[in-house]
Amino acid sequence: VKKVVAITLGILTAIGGFVDIGDIVANASVGARFGWALAWVVVVGIIGIVLFAEMAGRVASVSGRPVFDLVRERLGPRFALANLVSSFFVNLLTLTAEIAGVALALELATDVNYLLWLPLCAFAVWLVIWRVKFETMEDVFGILGLAMLVLLVAVWRAGPDWGSVFHQASHPSLPSGEGLPTYFFYAIALFGAAMTPYEVFFFSSGAVEEHWTRSDLLVNRSNVYIGFPLGGLLSLALMSAAAITLEPRHITVEHLGQVALPTALTLGKVGLAVLILAFFAATFGAALETALSSGYTIAQYFGWQWGKFVKPVEAARFHTVVLATIILAAIIGLSSVDPIKVTEYSLIFSAAALPLTYFPILVVANDPRYMGDKVNSRFANLLGTVYLLIVCVAAAAAIPLMIATKAGA
Amino acid sequence: VAATTVAVLGGCVGSSRATVDYQRKAVATTELVESSVRTVELAAQAAGDRRAFGPYLSRVVGQAEDDATSALGGFETVQPPADASDDLRTQVEQLASDAIDVLAEARITIRRDDVDGLAALAEPLRDAGDQLEQFGEEHKA
Prior knowledge:
The complex is a heterodimer of chains A (409) and B (141). Chain A is an all-alpha fold and 409 residues long. Chain A has helices spanning 2-6, 8-18, 21-34, 39-63, 67-75, 77-110, 114-131, 134-145, 150-158, 162-170, 180-194, 197-209, 217-245, 256-302, 316-334, 339-364, 368-371, 378-404. Chain A contains 18 helices and no strands. Helices cover 87% and strands 0% of the residues of chain B. The chains are: A mainly alpha (409), B mainly alpha (141). The interface between A and B is medium-sized, with 25 and 27 residues.
């Protein structure tokens, strides 16, 4: 049990990163529209986030300081400010969508409009951050998020022709009526979803919250190598369930309820209830992550005391930023803006901001002043450089493709 | 003369393009309505097999009806570019309205907790979906 609990930070981070409200709808939407033709993007995303999250966790374990703190010191306040502004903007959009996502999960269970749930959900997110210990929070939501495993059971029970699935995934082709720009728009959205900046900020700050040291490098690797691929697997399961049940019926995924239909049809009421619980846990966990990440990045940039490892009164400015961000996100959510659209846009803006996040991590993880003998290996640097190129291409293409395809319409 | 020729030809091309665009919008509208209809068809199937609970079904059906209504409303605001497009408009309106009627019936039924009634609508929903699909295939530009 201790070993399972030791990797809950990775599981919580990965579930937030791979199966938050945006990913849930985006993966199902892609599966219903392109089948398995974009499954390769999830695999590329998993390798990328594993690579950089391991670096971020290692930096935090060895230096005892989170990545964002070191970025400002190593690359200067201007670069860090650009990073801060872009990541905070993406965080705010994502937090808006996650709080709405929690409300949407409750709406599915109760048939009460999500706008009525939204203020209560925002309050609950703040209350958990204010009152619950970091370890308890990550254990509860990391383990509850594992309810998403019901998706794997649903896909297995649906019994697809695995040979055909593997062939479609390994030989991606455009479905009739779809253009290449739309295909690449969704590819970038999925890639942006897998590599969302808040994941590494949350993960490295979480490592500091848990007082990781050099002796925890194995725990770091276990978190990264188990948690993130698990998140990616769930992401593929969402895509597969939609590809099996919704694609043949020409269903376009616009709502959370449609995502749950394949599971209801294969596993019945119990499976449906578990999946709605999983939606609730995953989006709540992601809301905690994004709200905390907003506080982490701002407090670390300005050098304030931060974190849940100290009493709230000792980190008053950090907690004020978290509270203000939650209130702002709730106000945006209550303006009745479509939460699914908000999160789809946040994925694209996230892709556009990726180089500002991942370039500094690579720099810091190679600096012996912080890392001593734990700097990156040659292989990690080679792979990291290749990924930086991919990230730059995705960032450059993200917004033009969004405009050209009318956000994949 | 050259300017007049260009203007006249441009006008012809514009009109032709507008007709094709209108046809694309008509097909896109029927595809959106079909998506809603097929969603509710699956919900009806789940209801018949007792595989989903009432509040969930009510929400799925309600959202599908809203989406279909919104898709038709959006299409109706588009000006048909020529007399020949009027027939297309009438066909889309007829097909989509019929489908929305079935969706509304499904919504009323499930909000009265009539799970069997929703399950019984699976066949009319399938018929409506098939007609919309057929229209899309016949008119794809």
